[in-house]
From TrEMBL:
The modification 4-aspartylphosphate is found at D51. One of its GO terms (molecular function) is phosphorelay response regulator activity. Gene3D superfamilies: 3.40.50.2300, 6.10.250.690, Winged helix-like DNA-binding domain superfamily/Winged helix DNA-binding domain. It holds the Pfam family Response_reg. Residues 124-218 form the OmpR/PhoB-type domain. Residues 124-218 bind DNA. One of its GO terms (biological process) is regulation of DNA-templated transcription. InterPro entries: CheY-like_superfamily (IPR011006), OmpR/PhoB-type_DNA-bd (IPR001867), Sig_transdc_resp-reg_receiver (IPR001789), WalR-like (IPR039420), WH-like_DNA-bd_sf (IPR036388). Keywords: DNA-binding, Phosphoprotein, Transcription, Transcription regulation. This is Response regulator transcription factor. One of its GO terms (cellular component) is cytosol. SUPFAM superfamilies: CheY-like.
Amino acid sequence: MFVVLVEDDPYIAQSICAALDFLNISVEHVSTARTADYFVRHSAVDLCLLDLGLPDQDGLELLKQWRQDQIHLPVLVLTARLHTQQCVEALNLGADDYLTKPFELDELIARIHALSRRHRGFSSNILQFADLSLNRDTQEVFYQQQAIQLSRREYSLLETLMSHPNQILKNEQLLDKLYGYQDSIESNALNVHIYHLRQKLNADFIQTIRGVGYMFKAPGES
């Protein structure tokens, strides 16, 4: 699991990072909304711990923008605000859970694991994006209600991209997913799989981010 912690209090951040590191959960700490937004859009993040009281932008506004842009990663809101309305607003904007400071680290860890299980359960069957659907149980793919035949690696690549819509996935991340840590991989292997996927889907779902990787977006989106 890869977690992004968005927290401007260095002492709270240090405690949370230490607890996650101890449990072998990868964590990246950022302290501003701008950095958090860039990181979420350019990395394969599994879960975000989001403080609402950030120095450059309200965390609620950042959350609202992510949901409007179809970024659906699980978000656990952290807030020192005592007003219940703030937590209700966060949930209405698409937050998955919240904790009010101060909190026990054990409770935070329990909620992270619960969110992870819930998200896996929610997404374990069907991934749907516009007219494209992927069934993880049967490994079937349909575009405009027509079955699409994919190779094993094409399916794995599409599943990875659809699991992180509107996020840039680096070439190295995608190659790791497809081949693991094999030493001998053709330099154009990923490009070939992307090419075949685009041909079979008959739509420009997959956007090239030159020199970096690829992003999965609905056709026609800028």
